[in-house]
Amino acid sequence: MTGSVVTLGETMALLSTPPWGRVTGGSALPVGIGGAESNVAIGLARLGVPCTWISRVGDDALGDLVVREVRAEGVRVLARRDPEAPTGLMLKELRGGAPRRVGYYRRGSAASLLSTSDIDERVVGAAAVVHLTGITPALGPGPREAIDRVVELARSAGALVSFDVNHRAALWSPAQASPVLARLAAAADVVFAGPEEAALLLGREPVDEPGFDLGEELARAVARTGPRTVVVKLGALGSLAFDGGRVHRAAAVPVTAVDPVGAGDAFVAGYLSGAVAGAAVPECLRLGNAAGAAVCAVPGDWEGFPTREELDAAPGRAEVVR
Predict the structure, then answer these.
(1) Phi, psi of 15 (to 5 degrees)
(2) In b/e form, how buried is each residue of 234-270, taking b as 16+ CB within 10 angstroms?
(3) What domain of life is recorded for the organism (predicted)?
(4) What is the H or E stretch that residue 293 is in?
(5) Which CATH superfamily is domain 5-10+37-88+114-304 in?
(6) Which end of the chain is less enclosed by CB atoms within 10 A, N or C?
(7) Is the dihedral of CA 42, 122, 166, 63 positive or negative?
(8) CB 241 within 8 A of CB 230
(9) 208 labelled catalytic
(10) Measured in Å, how far apart are the chain's first and last C-alpha atoms?
(11) How far is CA 262 from CA 79, 269, 306, 311, in A?
């Protein structure tokens, strides 16, 4: 399978507190951007995969920032500018230079008003892969209808539907999220989930001590609901995939984690870059683990996403290129 990837979702402006965490008068707060779907699009673009990101942003300075940054990474941007609603904002609180908590200020944002009218049906219909997350349907009824329409279009066009559960407890409760996320996962070809998210899809209690054996059990159970491939992200342990009746396990790439935010999106980008190229599942897992590790090693949600050359380099390579 070759071709482009289309994704849909909200990207917000991102403020980060000083490394010591406390905001005081005169504090300088670096401004960036972040959003699961655009993170994946940027990761894929850096790996040479053509990508389109569909969204809606405010007709404001933060909307300018979001569009400019995503487009600068080589991603095709189809984002309506909304004069009536603002671009969403999030605040990453640091302690000792490491992320401690992320707060969201997205109620009433432009992206929460996403609708089927924002979907370019020709673009979706021409994609090889459509990637979606569980964040978008949590934003409201309009985004939920939009994501359902994208799935319908992708199915009609024969595109592979990729779905990252990405449950955000700040947006909706497990009881609200579970049936919606389970329905979307069942309609997907490839599902990405952490152990807790896989348990949520199945209506089970939260996982206490996730590992490869439990991850395999959860992957098999989720696969019985519909998707051909279920990928379980196990963080520092690595990842596994249940695909076509077979289980594949891949150990994590050793790394000193500086900022784990965005590692899951990088994993998805790495995995899908392999899928688009027709790689076997074990190679897709390797690429996902390597990309996730690269992002963990530097601050930022997506800034550390590797290029193809960097991803193909030997893990742990210390040689300085002069």
Answers:
(1) -105, 140
(2) bbebbbbbbbeeeebbbebbebeeebebbbbbbbbbb
(3) Bacteria
(4) helix 281-296
(5) Ribokinase (3.40.1190.20)
(6) C
(7) positive
(8) yes
(9) no
(10) 37
(11) 22, 11, 12, 16
How many angstroms separate the CA atoms of 109 and 58, rounded? 7
Q: Which two tokens stand for residue 319?
A: 């040689």
CA distance 226 to 188: 7
| Token pair listed for 110 | 């432009």
3 state SS for 121-190: HHHHHCCCEEEEECCHHHHCHHHHHHHHHHHHHHHHHCCEEEEECCCCCCCCCHHHHHHHHHHHHHHCCE
Residue in 104, 118, 110, 167 with CA at minimum distance from that of residue 138 = 167
Find the mean pLDDT for residues 228-238.
95
In the DSSP assignment, the letter for residue 200 is H
| Closest CA relative to residue 41, chosen from 164, 159, 138, 145 | 164
Report helix, strand or coil for 110: helix
Retrieve residue 45's tokens: 């673009």
Q: What amino acid occupies position 232?
A: V
Residue that wins the pLDDT comparison between 161 and 320: 161
pLDDT in tens, 214-226: 999 999 999 999 9
Task: Name the average pLDDT for the chain.
Answer: 91
